[in-house]
Amino acid sequence: MSEPEAVKKTVLHTLERGLHVLEAVAAAEGTATAKVLSRRLGIKLGTCYHLLRTLLADGYVVRLPGGRYDVGHRAARLGRHLQRRSGPSPELAVILTRLHNRTHETSYISGWYHGTLTLQHYISGVHVLGVGNLDVGYTGHMHARASCKAVLAFLPEEQVAAMLEGVELEAVTPRTIVHYDDLTAELARVRRQGYAVDREEFSEGVCCLSAPFFDDAGSPTGAFTVSVPSTRFEERQASLTVAVREAASMATGLLRAGRLRGGPADHARPPD
């Protein structure tokens, strides 16, 4: 039996469905009803009610007027715990706020640690964008995200090859780079220009621009990113490039000067 098959056999499907319900309730932001959840998730209505009652009893969801459900205090506490553990240092958070105030676009900071780039925090822009399932703690699709390309470009080539060469690169959108040779060419371009661009490679209708920041050894430690609707990306690209590169430069300066509270190694990466 293969490892994936063995894992499937150990999955508790009731728990799996319960987590899917909790995720759907969170995504609906207080508008979800049992009927809507049942239809959206393909779960029998009776089962959906049973799962909601269990989540309600344990404080993971709350029931609102009109039979609607929202995230409860225990689920919210899990989110705060994740934010505390994986969030950026206060100094880097200030730079992120500055980036958001300069661009008025959704702005992100991600940290690189042990071969993974993790989204640590973001501030939504004036026009909120739905960028796939991108949220705090997200680590997937490194070949498709501007932030990941910004960091990968400045890693040793053999390290990138060990991670991605021969690995299937999923076509997240029709524009996603799916061939390793094309990705290495793209990373070479990122190195030359000092920033990375995602033109609807991760989410259709959305473009992103990202610049990496570095520690005192010159290794990439993370990246600042902004996302913008593709309809206005061209007109804003130049100003966004200046803004993310400034943010990255400020973070690099703090890291190299050892001016992050608790030390750069504690705050530029998520924990084990």
UniProtKB/TrEMBL annotation:
Keywords: DNA-binding, Transcription, Transcription regulation
Transmembrane segments: none
InterPro entries with a match to the protein in the record: GAF-like_dom_sf (IPR029016), HTH_MetabolicPath_Reg (IPR050707), Tscrpt_reg_IclR_C (IPR014757), Tscrpt_reg_IclR_N (IPR005471), WH-like_DNA-bd_sf (IPR036388), WH_DNA-bd_sf (IPR036390)
Pfam families in UniProt: HTH_IclR, IclR_C
Highest taxon above the source species: Bacteria
PANTHER family registered for this protein in UniProt: HELIX-TURN-HELIX TRANSCRIPTIONAL REGULATOR, ICLR FAMILY, HTH-TYPE TRANSCRIPTIONAL REPRESSOR ALLR
Protein name, UniProt field: IclR family transcriptional regulator
Source organism: Streptosporangium fragile
